[in-house]
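Structure tokens please, single chain.
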Amino acid sequence: MGTVESAGGGTMVDIEDIRRARERIGRRVHRTPLLRSATLGTLTGARLWIKAEAFQKTGSFKVRGVFNRIALMSEQERARGLITISAGNHAQAVAYAASVEGVHATVVMPAHASPAKVEASRAYGADVVLFGDVFGAFARMEELRAEHGYTLLHPFNDEGVIAGHGSVGLEILEDLPDVDIVMVPVGGGGLISGVAAAIKLERPLVRVIGVEPEGAATMRAALDAGSVVRLDQIMTIADGLAPPSAGEVTLAHVQRFVDDVVAVPDRDILRAMALIMTRTKLFVEPSGAAGLAALLSGHITTSPDQRIVVVASGGNVDIGRLKELF
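Here you go.
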């Protein structure tokens, strides 16, 4: 994968990796719509579009990278079965894609994971293991991987996954060629790595901004330190943006292709989530509202003539949890 060198001497995905990934996954995923919202544009002081990945299969962007990564695996790797770690969206994507491809999948999820996401992962056909908090779940996943020889399908720190997610960036550029800023939620960094690589390698002047929850700002911590930082505590309502650390591969991509990464408090994410649902009727989870939250809270300076795309990364909200959030 890839021929572009990182600052550390490794390789990253290039534009051909991303184009080939889109060809591989094209029949397996949806091309999601880019929706204009005049109301939200007025509130943010710019012209605003939403990339509605909540309409993607399994309810989030995750299947893009998962399908591409499975396509790149050898028959031996597939035969061993897949294992992954996820709070929900990646788990559902792996469960669904593995089922389509006829591969056995085990997903390890924190014990407090959304019951709706747990049930969906099981319904798609995966064996689900619930264990501890996010730190304990990572450790349990590694134990099971070593015990059974499973092939790891990492939720973000993988060039094949990143290349698949880059298809989001290609679609944005095709649907809005004169875009000025793209706002992308950041968890482990797989989505923004792919989107930013696709956009910067095609249109270097477009700004790409990452947005994290303040209680799980792993990428911002890694950028500040110059290396991956493992947080001691994760505290956020955005469970899709809450890994204990970014990855070496995603950090390298963000360092090269992303203009800035900002952190927003949960209260701003909740406000943005409510506005998206009430003003656009698009059902998004907290993770999917992070980009709008950064705009509404003034983290990014905008002007009325700028064209801004907010990536609404997913819409998998447990209905029962809405009462807790609001």
